Every structure is written in structure tokens, then in C-alpha cells.
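Practice record 12: protein with pyridoxal-5'-phosphate.
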Amino acid sequence: MKYDRSFNFSAGPAMMPEPVLEEIRDEMMNYRGSGTSVMEMSHRSKAFQQIAADAEADLRKLMNIPDNYKVLFIQGGGTVQFAMVPMNLMKNGKAVYIETGAWSKKAIAEAKKYGEVIVAASSKDKNFSYVPDCSDLDIPEDADYVYICENETIHGLTYNKLPNTKGHILVSDQSSMFLSRPCNVADYGLIWAGVQKNVGPAGMAVVIIREDLLRDDLAPYVPAYMSYKTHADNDSMYNTPNCWAIYCCGKVFRYLLDNGGVEAMEQRNIEKAKILYDFLDNSKMFQGTVEKADRSLMNVPFVTASKESDDAVVAATKAAGFDNLKGHRSVGGLRASIYNAMPKEGVEALVAFLKDYEAKN
Ligand SMILES: *Cc1c(COP(=O)(O)O)cnc(C)c1O
């Protein structure tokens, strides 16, 4: 591989497209004749205002975001959104959550600080190895929203059909699947994504929110920074934003537009995941942990027969130049995260390695 880089299967921060990293490198010392690097630039400068405006415009194009939705760049990564969602959207103090793994559990725990949380469906009974049926959920009339984690990064499952919210607002954590496939923004009230999984550097979330959900009647103790309206009213520059992340994400948005958009990404991602899942389905040594219909295209957890042999495989992959294949501590085993920026060659090389490993062990 160019630059002697390894294939990095990390769940996040994760790989970014090489052409994007090269562009960032080339612009590092003097951004387009501005005399400074982007890191040293005022967020109020013309140059940076253009960077932010372009990033938003390109994301709108990529996702075909309707005009009545705001795009916000908010610091605090994904975790801050676990609190911002209930703080801003709980009007009646009641929300429905679907529990499908580690990240929806965290969202539920945080939301409970702000109101009543009704877990209307869960796959806890089978260690979060499937997406529960959400076609006829028991949703109280006065529930403020229905919340899902659309791709569970740790457990490796994904929704292929959105819940029937019976007219309620749908809120989705898309962190680990953002821009990996087309999505109809109008189906949601709010989509948010921590960007370090499938887009750029850590420390920021993109929030896409329908305008009528912005409120100026929040509880008086809600910090100004935690109000979506604050960010919307100030074009995400109420305070100094994460300029660097906005810049890098903008580069990735442009790169995706130049490479066929999310439709092309989906095709590539299906192809890549198939290589790995086909191998797992035919292997005697390695087993996928998620029901076939609900498998993620982005995060692929798998196990061997014992923890000892899991650890041995992880060590062997590491020695062979494949990074970060150790599964999350809550699931064990291995996990290959194969986001947009992971080339097909990386997945092919990993599968070839695992095949060979299986033959020899
Ligand atoms: C990583 C992740 C988060 C948390 O993001 P942080 O930026 O680490 O706070 C939330 N949800 C999902 C689905 C994630 O993958």
C-alpha cells in the first residue's frame, strides 16, 4: 500500500479516503494562498466561512436534504447528542426507544435523566444479534419521538426497514452508517451522526433537524450550547466550532460527490461486506454473530470457538498488518469495521489471510 499504511479496521476513529488526506496535506501550510493553515484561521474569516458553507452545501447535495431541514455541526461528538435529543425534543417528557445494542442502551440511560423512557422493543434476549420487529410498536399517543440507533457499531446490526412510528417523529443515530447508503431524510425528524466513524476526525456530530422541531421554549436550565436552536440561529458558529473537523468532513463530502455519491458507496459497501460474510458463512473456524437479515454493511463482528483462539487470531492479524480487529470488550471476538474509506482490496486481503490462517490451524 502507498505510504506503507496498514489496513485499519478500527470502529472509529477510522480510515479516511487517501486522496482526501493527500489534499489536506497539500493545503496544510498555506491554505489556498490565505497565508495560514486551516487550523490557524479565524472561524469568522472569509476563507473559513466558505469552507463551512461548501461543506454544508455538499452534504445537502449528497443526501438530498429538503429545504425545511437544518444542518448543524456540533461539538461533543456522538455522546452529547444522547443528552441533546431529550433536552430539545421531550415536550411531554416521554419518548420511545428501541434497544438494539450498546449505543441505544447509552442513549436510553441518558434520556432517562430528562423524562420517561419507554423501551418498546428490544433484542436484549439474544444478546443484540437481531433487529426486533418494529412494524406495530406500542407507542403512547403523547410520546414525543421514537429513537433508534440505525447501525449498532459494537453489535454489528442494522435496520433495513425503519420502524412504523405511527405518525411520531423518528430520531436516528446514524453515526456508523452515515453516508454509507441512500436515505430519505424526510422520513426522519432528526438524524445525527458522530463523524469519526464514516466521515472525518473525531469530536463533532452532524445533526440534520426538521425546522419545526427547533424550540425557544426549552427549560431555563438548558445550557445555550445544548439548544439546537442556538446552533441553527448562528449557522453552527455560536462559539468557535470544530473548524478542523468541518474542513476535513467537507473534503470527504466533496470526494463522495465526485465518486458517485451515496448510491455508489452503497454498491461498493454491499460488495465489500459480501466478501467477508461469504467467507464467514463458509468457515468452520469463524462465525458471524448477527442474524443474516440484520447484518451491518459497516461493522462485522465474528468469533472463533474460544477467547484464547480469538486472541491468537487478533495477534496474528496485527502482525500481518491488519489493525484494530479486536472485538469490543462487551462482545469479545473480532470485529472488522469496513466503512466507506476501506478499499475492497483491504477486505480481500483480510479474507485471504483468515482463510490461510484457518487452513493452518
Ligand atoms: C461511536 C458512536 C457513538 C459515540 O460517539 P462519540 O463521538 O465517541 O461520543 C454514538 N453512537 C454510535 C452508533 C457510535 O458508533
